[in-house]
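Explain the record.
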Amino acid sequence: MYTVSPHSVLKQISQALPADCRDNMIIVGSLAAACHFFDGSEMLKTKDADGMLSPNAKAVSAAVTVTDRLLDA
């Protein structure tokens, strides 16, 4: 596990996702809780980030696009 700034990690995730897919991604779990409750100065110990795609007609297409682009990177 690493000690990280949750806001910094969230920013990195946002920048890594294709811009047209960001609206479909929802960050959940400890990272989301830390971003909500911490003011930005606290650090978080975590090994991953949990995300899910919003359940709408574009989500499946967005999931394929996100997966393909992240695997290509």
Remarks:
- The mean pLDDT is 86.
- Helices lie at 6-16, 30-37, 59-72.
- The two ends are 23 Å apart (CA to CA).
